[in-house]
Amino acid sequence: MAQTVNDALKQARLYSDDQNYAVISLPPGGITAAAGVLAEVGEPFAALIVDKDEVTLVIPEDALDEFGRRLPGHRRLETAYCLLTLDVELEPALVGFMARVSAALAEAGISILPFAAHTRDHLLVPADQFDKARATLEKLRAEA
Questions:
Q1: Per-domain boundaries in the chain
Q2: Which of 59, 83, 85, 123 has a CA positioned 20 to 30 A from the CA of residue 13?
Q3: d(CA 102, CA 137)
Q4: Torsion on CA atoms 21, 26, 28, 31, rounded to nearest 10
Q5: Ramachandran angles phi, psi of 123, nearest 5°
């Protein structure tokens, strides 16, 4: 039987690692430096996204203190972010899961940076909105 959004929400556990994350932008040529830093960070959550306009790197905030000098031309978002993982294996054909999650958070006035892994979805939320985001998602799970 195909997984439904309600099934996934009911099964999801919210996971966070209690770290603050830095979101960093680099020029397109910064991929090698970003990949090198990412390889050395060794944390359970980090992200590297490369598109035609920029390289985006997400690493723990304290790692930026250590590795920032190796990221020439980097710009950091001023906001510190916290991780909220929707810890449930999501089927690739599932439609509407992130739409439901993001709609609930939007209604609560919480901005998100969503990241999809192979089987799980992750959110970065502003650190000062973390408790509200967690409570909003717990309520969403309970109502599913």
A1: 5-18+80-143, 21-76
A2: 59
A3: 10
A4: -60
A5: -125, 140
Place of tokens 């650190």: 127
Using CA atoms, how far residue 29 sits from 34, 73, 76, 77, in Å, is: 10, 10, 17, 19
Note the CATH architecture for domain 5-18+80-143: 2-Layer Sandwich (3.30)
For the domain made up of 21-76, the CATH class stated in words is alpha beta
DSSP run (H or E) holding 44? none
CA distances from 20 to 105, 130, 137 (A): 19, 10, 19
* Closest to 25 measured CA to CA, from 84, 85, 78: 78
SS3 126: strand
- Give the percent of the chain with pLDDT over 90: 94
Q: Are 74 and 30 in contact (CB under 8 A)?
A: yes
